[in-house]
Task: inverse folding
């Protein structure tokens, strides 16, 4: 008798092992909550943008949770600081994954993004980038990595920029300021490739600089010496501000254009009349943080101030980036269903074809393209640093995309689908 | 653009390098200690200006003075806390202590003001004015003029005041000065206060030119280079500062913009290899 009981218990134990494995939790998921990691530069030169983006994420999370969460699960966000430093970014991501987050979001600095990208493929953890423009995170496409910034990536921007410079600004000789790092060189090479292939032109003066530089006399002198009629500035606000100011102080009379890194309130506040007539690429969803006629933009701005206060240059366009990206994540979680796994979430994101999440351009992911949006807009700075939206928008032409964006369009529904997350009750 | 324009454009940054270098040299000459926290004193000058002028809306001249006094006080505290207790220890201990004090100030700035970047508008116009083919801004002129004023003040102080003469005596020979009744400790404190004043002036002058952020202490490297090039003499450091700024720009235009920042280090190497006593330093010969 005793023998039978023991044998029975052993058999029961052996057969329960697969069930225990099945019942094992998906990392970061419980019945009540789902843990999403968030990484952004919260200190250092990019802090204004990083904190703005994090606030945007937090606002969207609050809104989603106030409406009951996703399939009954509230979202819990764990935020870490990358300091815009690749080494620290890698450590932060490893910590987030090690602590069992379901997915990771965020990161504004492209240098950090390039460093952390391979980790997600190796660990099979979904990552939804929200703020960095580098094309290296989506070209070539990685299975677990998505870019939901709401605007084109660096390669697309470079091709769109080349088109804008030549066809709209009629530039003949372009001086190109870029950061002397992988991101900056990538930006330069993409723009050069686009100019060469489309217009048989080259950059007249490539002008590298280091983050932290303060005196750009030498570079500006070179730009004037080659007879540049357009200076383009890529990089972050601090150096961009100094370059534009010093260019005008040194008597440069041509046109000046700025890359997405300059499109924040901090730049506009500081540049004043020196920026008059300057053209800046947008790095936010379609409607800028300054477009208060758009109710969602106004809502994000007002709620950000109410909940998180203001700071130098904050809130800014990155608040919209973060808010947009979190809504994309929320929609992916919703589509993945209640019995969620990381793989289901990833596949759910790939079903988002022309999905309107309530702000910005509709999102399209597919199994061949994890870049949500390929368009962008530009605006020009008017007197006193006020940005005005140009009527015309630009972006990369579809024939210039490196991957077919919608290779099987017939598989997808026609028109735009509105996500339920676009119509959640607004926070008071 | 010709060389003259490049040199003129370099004067403003040269002034800042000269001021920071001078602050380093004053402490070194009196105490034999190289203050690795000088960059943070410069940064504090800028942050004090942000606080008094930008945040509290105190009139500029008063805010300028308060920033200078605040930084001078901080320098005094640094000397008392980091260096005074190490007077009998090897000099290296004091140097390390200044480095550590600088790090404490760096993180304290983040704690108090946060990690974000501030911008203050220039008090003097930075719209360019042309005289013939030469361009300059009133702000450049302002920076050079204020620098010249403070350098003159330092010169007059050292030449014609009792404390200034005491400082010169201590920098020549501490032991002999002490035997002659000079309070060497008082001179040490004085050198730190003067250094703090010069660092603050540099920070306040440069604040509207740069964006103010916690990492702006990089300028201490340029000040150090100016000091080495000048032989750690007062007039030599001033010349070194202007020379460094001009050579950086000329190198950038005619050799390579990518390696412009390397010029400071190249100049240090060149001086150490060719003339270790620097431009106007005095060679010290020891009897063996």
Result:
């Amino acid at each position: 008798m005793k023998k039978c009981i023991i044998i029975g218990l052993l058999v029961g134990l052996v057969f329960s092992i697969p069930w225990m494995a099945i019942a094992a939790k998906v990392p970061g998921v419980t019945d009540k909550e789902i843990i999403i990691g968030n990484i952004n530069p919260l200190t250092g030169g990019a802090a204004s943008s990083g904190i703005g983006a994090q606030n945007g994420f937090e606002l969207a999370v609050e809104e989603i949770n106030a409406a009951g969460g996703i399939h009954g699960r509230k979202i819990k966000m764990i935020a870490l600081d990358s300091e815009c430093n690749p080494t620290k970014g890698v450590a932060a991501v490893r910590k987030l994954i090690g602590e069992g987050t379901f997915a990771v979001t965020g990161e504004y600095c492209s240098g950090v993004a390039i460093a952390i990208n391979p980790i997600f493929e190796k660990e099979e953890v979904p990552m939804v980038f929200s703020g960095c423009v580098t094309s290296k995170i989506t070209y070539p496409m990685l299975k677990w990595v998505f870019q939901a910034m709401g605007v084109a990536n660096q390669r697309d921007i470079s091709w769109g920029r080349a088109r804008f410079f030549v066809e709209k600004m009629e530039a003949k000789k372009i001086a190109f300021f870029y950061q002397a790092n992988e991101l900056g060189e990538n930006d330069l090479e993409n723009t050069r490739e686009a100019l060469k292939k489309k217009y048989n032109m080259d950059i007249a003066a490539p002008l590298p600089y280091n983050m932290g530089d303060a005196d750009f006399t030498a570079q500006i002198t070179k730009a004037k010496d080659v007879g540049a009629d357009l200076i383009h500035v890529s990089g972050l606000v601090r150096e961009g501000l100094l370059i534009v100011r010093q260019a005008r102080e040194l008597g440069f009379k041509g046109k000046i254009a700025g890359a997405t890194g300059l499109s924040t309130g901090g730049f506009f506040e500081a540049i004043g009349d020196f920026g008059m007539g300057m053209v800046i690429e947008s790095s936010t969803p379609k409607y800028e943080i300054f477009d208060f006629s758009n109710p969602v933009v106004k809502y994000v701005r007002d709620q950000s101030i109410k909940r998180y206060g203001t700071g130098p240059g904050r809130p800014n366009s990155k608040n919209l980036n973060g808010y947009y990206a979190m809504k994309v994540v929320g929609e992916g979680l919703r589509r993945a269903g209640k019995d969620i796994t990381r793989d289901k979430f990833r596949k759910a994101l790939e079903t988002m074809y022309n999905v309107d999440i309530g702000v910005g351009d509709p999102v399209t992911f597919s199994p061949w393209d994890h870049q949500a949006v390929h368009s962008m807009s530009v605006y020009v700075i008017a007197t006193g640093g006020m940005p005005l939206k140009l009527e015309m928008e630009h972006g990369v032409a579809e024939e210039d995309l490196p991957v077919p964006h919608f290779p099987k369009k017939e598989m997808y529904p026609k028109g735009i689908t509105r996500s339920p997350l676009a119509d959640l009750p607004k926070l008071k | 653009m010709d060389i003259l324009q490049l040199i003129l454009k370099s004067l403003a940054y040269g002034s800042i390098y000269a001021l920071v270098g001078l602050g380093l040299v004053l402490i070194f000459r009196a105490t034999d200690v190289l203050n690795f926290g000088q960059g943070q004193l410069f940064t504090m000058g800028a942050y004090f200006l942000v606080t008094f002028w930008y945040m509290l809306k105190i009139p500029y001249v008063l805010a300028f003075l308060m920033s200078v006094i605040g930084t001078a006080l901080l320098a005094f505290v640094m000397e008392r806390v980091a260096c005074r207790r190490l007077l009998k220890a090897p000099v290296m201990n004091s140097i390390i202590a200044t480095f550590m004090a600088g790090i404490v100030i760096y993180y304290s700035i983040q704690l108090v003001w946060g990690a974000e970047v501030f911008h203050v508008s220039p008090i003097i116009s930075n719209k360019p004015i042309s005289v013939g083919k030469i361009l300059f801004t009133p702000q450049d002129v302002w920076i050079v003029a204020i620098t010249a004023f403070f350098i003159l003040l330092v010169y007059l102080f050292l030449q014609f005041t009792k404390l200034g003469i005491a400082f010169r005596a201590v920098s020549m020979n501490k032991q002999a000065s002490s035997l002659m009744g000079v309070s060497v400790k008082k001179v040490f404190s004085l050198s730190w206060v003067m250094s703090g004043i010069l660092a603050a002036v540099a920070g306040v002058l440069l604040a509207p030119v740069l964006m103010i952020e916690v990492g702006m202490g990089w300028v201490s490297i340029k000040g150090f280079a100016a000091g080495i090039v000048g032989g750690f003499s007062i007039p030599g450091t001033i010349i070194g500062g202007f020379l460094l700024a001009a050579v950086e720009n000329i190198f950038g235009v005619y050799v390579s913009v990518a390696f412009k920042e390397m010029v400071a280090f190249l100049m240090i190497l060149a001086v150490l290899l060719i003339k270790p006593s620097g431009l106007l330093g005095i060679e010290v010969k020891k009897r063996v």
